[in-house]
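Notes from hallway chat w/ T.B., transcribed later so I don't forget. T.B. wanted the structure written out for a chain they're using in a teaching module, and asked if we could keep both sequence and structure tokens in one place. Agreed to drop them here.
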Amino acid sequence: MLYYLFNYLDQLDLPGAGMFKYVSFRSGLALILSLFISTAIGRRIIDKLQLLQIGETVRNLGLEGQMSKKGTPTMGGIIIIIAILIPVLLCARLGNIYVLLMLITTIWLGCLGFADDYIKVFKKNKEGMHGRFKVIGQVGLGLIVGLVLFMSPDVVIKENMEVRHGDVIEEVRYHNVETKSTKTTIPFVKNNNLDYANLVSWAGAYKQEAAWLLFVAMVIFVVTAVSNGANLTDGLDGLAAGCSAIIGVALGILAYMSSHFEFSSFLNIMFIPGAEELVVYAAAFIGATVGFLWYNAYPAQVFMGDTGSLTLGGIIAVFAIIIRKELLIPILCGIFLVENLSVMLQVAYFKYTKKKYGEGHRIFKMTPLHHHFQKPGNAGLQALIQKPYAVVPESKIVVRFWLIGIILAVITIVTLKMR
């Protein structure tokens, strides 16, 4: 909104109004606003949640410090959502298709997560929303995002072309014409591009249509997987918010590079017109998650609940898809991936051993993986991995996961030069 106001004032030659034309200025303003909003309204929202007695229900699973969390206000993801939406509405160009998609994603998954938390807290149903309805909501969002990217004339790219002299790349040029494309960025290969159409070459004359169907299916899968991964990661104070902030920084850098002719040429990735507005969104996302840590860091005064975790995961997924970096998610969101895999492996192995031996065994002492480090080893558990035997303090687990997240974020960006 402010962008349009100051653009009008700039036409009237108001001194300083032209600053709003620059993405860097608006991104910095969005970051400051989101930090201020999340810290300023956080205390009020926490007090309101306590007044409504919206506290976390905790089952005693034998984890260190677990029972001290009982009664801590949940549904704090509302703080993150508000701190994202207000700065973006004020600082971004709202006519940008990518910004609109991110706003839809934030509100859609925020409502889905809120409904889940509402059932848990007010309906006293510990299971929350039935899993199938949660998946339907995630699939629905993936379908909307995929179809908009397919149908909107504003979603275009300029493909990168290598000019070689022997085996040496002399320069990277771009097509003059902006085109709709099913190409995405993939590391470790020449030209850094993968065309989904190459995976459905059997479709013949309908190869392009089949490629878009495959792309939409990929969008649905990525949105569902990453949002669930973030949900599983939200089990320790500050873990999900801190990891998400780190991922947000990496995505913001990738969005800026993808929308900047010189930087995209340097990295040899496709140029995406209009993606620069996503840097404003990324700045608001980073500010909101870091500001939330003011209250969520150990010992947490509020939990984000599914209202926050589902939203954070969905935002990361859709953001990566828009800038054609969804195939980098296994590296960038490695923490979410490992948390997801730990649960899947644990369940599969338990069912297999129960069927074969009549008694279920475990791989980890407890899943998601972060809880494995909170449970003492040799505690009568039939787990393949008992180490570490001693309980690791919660704050140390969180910081170590953050450090791994930083390493993965750096590797994600560096991989674009490895080919």
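Follow-up for T.B.: The first helix runs from residue 2 to 11. Might be a good example for the class.
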